[in-house]
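User: Could you go from structure to sequence for me? I need the amino acid at each position, not a summary. Structure tokens:
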């Protein structure tokens, strides 16, 4: 069971990493937006724009993996199975829609 859960987590990490990579055409801007949002919802002082502009991301893929894993570690194994099942259904719908769009 444990190895199955780990395998599910690895597959979900691959999918989420790909999804996040789509958002990371400009990874510094993405991180800036996240930090700006966090400063609005958490009791931390706003981060000055000058500090945000100093952010330099070395690897978009590594950043994507970090975000993917932040999501994955917060999911209980039984929820993980349900999410994977939902993703399968969504993937089938997406494939059907893209197939129609190509015609």
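Assistant: Here is the amino acid at each position, in order:
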């Amino acid at each position: 069971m444990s190895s199955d859960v780990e395998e599910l987590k690895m597959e979900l990490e691959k999918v989420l990493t790909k999804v996040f990579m789509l958002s990371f055409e400009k990874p510094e801007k993405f991180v800036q937006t996240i930090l700006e949002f966090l400063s609005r919802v958490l009791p931390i002082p706003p981060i000055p724009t000058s500090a945000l502009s100093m952010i330099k991301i070395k690897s978009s893929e590594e950043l994507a993996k970090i975000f993917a894993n932040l999501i994955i570690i917060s999911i209980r194994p039984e929820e993980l199975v349900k999410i994977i099942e939902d993703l399968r259904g969504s993937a089938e719908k997406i494939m059907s829609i893209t197939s129609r769009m190509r015609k």
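One structural detail worth keeping in mind: The two ends are 43 Å apart (CA to CA).
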